[in-house]
Amino acid sequence: MKHFSEISPMAERVLDVAEVLVQQQGYSGFSYDDVARQVGIKKPSIHHHFPKKEELVAVLVQRYTHRFRAALLGIEGQHAKAPERLIAYAALFEGTFVKDRRLCVCGMLGAEADSLPGLVAGEVERFFKVNIDWLTLVVADGQRAALVSAQCAAEVLAEAFLCALEGSMVVGRGMRSSRGPADVGKTFLSTVLS
Q: Measured between alpha carbons, how far is 106 from 104 in angstroms, rounded to an integer?
């Protein structure tokens, strides 16, 4: 499998289209025909870049995780304290949701985890681990500074926060609501911030 940093501009366009399709329809909900039509190329051209759908989506998740990591570093560079970092983290999910109620790529794929090819499932799991590890560090820092409740372990709060944000996207889409991750994140944080 290629690394996302080694792909051509055309393969990048394929990934861009596939990302939106995954956010809207999941792994099983789109085909190479759908991607080819939207990119404006023939299906064999997609196979040239990504021989199998599982490789396409695995590279897509790899790229998505890399972008998220970069955003997390940006949050660290802009916000010193845990509460502000957690609010900025929720804004990442809000930024996705406000685009036609799109879901997080890995949230959507996570719902299909049992039917995903192993290569894709592994990348999705890695995305969630990156997020929970980062959130755990932020929450633990906040607990040490007495800014975040210490009634639960940092990792437990981190996972609950991630679940609240991912779930808010699913429920928001299902209810056709504009109440998304920013509002849910704010409500969640109001119960754990000191």
A: 5
Q: Give me the pLDDT at residue 178, please.
A: 77
Query: Mean pLDDT throughout 161-168?
Result: 97
Cβ(107)–Cβ(127) below 8 Å = no
Among candidates 12, 33, 173, 39, which has minimal Cα distance to 102?
173
Strand ranges (E), the chain: none
CA–CA separation, 35 and 23 (whole Å): 13
Over residues 176-188, the pLDDT tens digits come to 887 889 999 999 9
Tokens encoding 90: 């929720």
- Residue 185 near residue 90 (C-beta atoms within 8 A): yes
pTM for the predicted model, two decimal places:
0.94
